[in-house]
Amino acid sequence: MIERKLSVRVQPLPADQWDEAVDHALSSIPADRRCPEKTGNLLATLVRHPKLTRAFLRFNNHLLYSSTLPERLRELAVLRVAHRRHCEYEWRHHVRMGLEAGLTDEVIAGVQRGEATDELDRAVLRAVDELEDTSEISDATWTALSEHLDERQRMDLVFTIGCYGALAMAINTFGVKPDSETLAER
């Protein structure tokens, strides 16, 4: 992962400015996490635009909790996106989630090199690379994915890659710092 010096362009919303609109925007997450101390820098930044945050979270929650794509493959794809987009925030967050989903340190290291040991993992990494490079998955990669994933799973994979690519662009552009760097500051 290439570390970047982030220039914070959009600051997390200060706690004293959290209001009903912010609470409504975050209504899809558990109530005990809807506070500046527990949401993390990303959501604390996104809630500066509550309507956008609410819409984004509805889509993102589908990808995280209702997707037909197995959790392990989702995390493999998200990590490859984070690596390709040089998004340290997304990388750190999803390394933890990937380990919880069954990825090993060895598999995660392979993600950075674009290497995998099994056919499906290789196809997922290729799908990310192809979408990043050409905005389209090649016939060969689609066929390889089709041997393991049904149509809905492949659709969820494409939208997962796109969603986390867009999120990485926002994180990098807004200058969202990894949570560990600012928890001590709060």
Structure characterization notes:
By secondary structure, this protein is mainly alpha-helical. The protein has 2 domains: 15-65, no CATH class; 70-174, AhpD-like (Up-down Bundle). Helix content is 66%, strand content 0%. The chain is built from 10 helices and no strands. The chain has helices spanning 20-25, 36-46, 50-66, 71-84, 88-100, 105-113, 119-134, 139-146, 151-174, 179-182. Helix 4 runs parallel beside helix 9. The longest helix is centred in the C-terminal third of the chain and has 24 residues, at 151-174. It is globular and about 50 Å long. Residues 50-132 form the Carboxymuconolactone decarboxylase-like domain. The chain crosses the membrane at residues 157-176. Keywords: Membrane, Transmembrane, Transmembrane helix.
Helix content: 55-70%
| Structure classification | mainly alpha
Average pLDDT for all residues: 94
Proportion of β residues?
A: under 5%
The number of distinct helices, counting runs of at least 4 residues, comes to 10
- Globally, the shape reads globular
InterPro entries: AhpD-like, CMD-like
Domain Carboxymuconolactone decarboxylase-like: 50-132
Transmembrane segments: 157-176
GO molecular function, one term: peroxiredoxin activity
Summarize the topology:
Layout: H1 20-25, H2 36-46, H3 50-66, H4 71-84, H5 88-100, H6 105-113, H7 119-134, H8 139-146, H9 151-174, H10 179-182
Helix pairs in contact: 4-5, 4-7, 4-9, 7-8, 7-9
